[in-house]
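User: I'm curious whether this sequence folds into something compact or stays loose and floppy. Could you predict its structure so I can see for myself?
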Amino acid sequence: MKKILILAISCSFLWSCSSSKKKTKKVAKPIVKKATKAKEPVAKKDKTKHQVHWGYTGAHGPSHWGAIKPEFATCKDGKAQSPVNLTWHKPEKGGTLKFGYIPTRYSIVDNGHAIQVDFPEGQKAMIHGHEYQLLQVHFHAVSEHTIGGKSYPAEAHFVHKNKEGGLAVVGVMIIEGEKNEFIDQLWGKIPSKKHQKLMDDKTPFNPMALLPSIKTHYHYKGSLTTPPCTEGVMWYVLNTPISMSQMQLAYFNTYYTKTNRPVQPLNNRKAINY
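Assistant: Here's the prediction. I'll summarize afterward.
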């Protein structure tokens, strides 16, 4: 009897444990991935935004050019800089200027410092016996060079280059006077936005129209008149000016005025008259 009772109790206990295990069986929970916070895009630094650029006034003006960038150091340390004051001396023989410019297409741009007219290959000049190609003409107001201490309302720079890479710049003084019809052609093509280049294929332009008939000039060795102020530039400044009307000069001054680097010391150089 005791054996039967013990067997009954054991069976009851085993059934209870088995039932309990079924009830407490864990159900696997679905795997839920935790939402990760989206990373915000990192804004790229604008490398050009804070670049210091040169100008003609204030902390970016000519007296500070040499300190703006290491490559502008010649603007401060150079000993053969341009522009200069030119004084009359008895002319020497030789040193002729012969311009073989022809009517051509051109492009014009407001480069942020000047109005510049670019020309394709084919505009030749024989300067003191050496052949050069005209690259571009740009304008400063007032003139950069002075003659006998006198400045002019504007000055045009004809920038040439030879096969060896040497630069020759012909400077032309501009006075207020008669209207220049060729200047009207250029001024009417100036783009409305800076650094926007406008190409004119329909109305050819001859750069000869911006030169006086008399080619007597001053010659000296100098530099670029804008940063990086590279030296070794051959300068030929005509002492006969061309003219623009008051209205034409005033129109140019709506774009640029006082874009002239002050005259620099001649040091051991001499400007020769031809």
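Summary: The first helix runs from residue 2 to 23. The CA atoms of residues 223 and 232 lie 6 Å apart.
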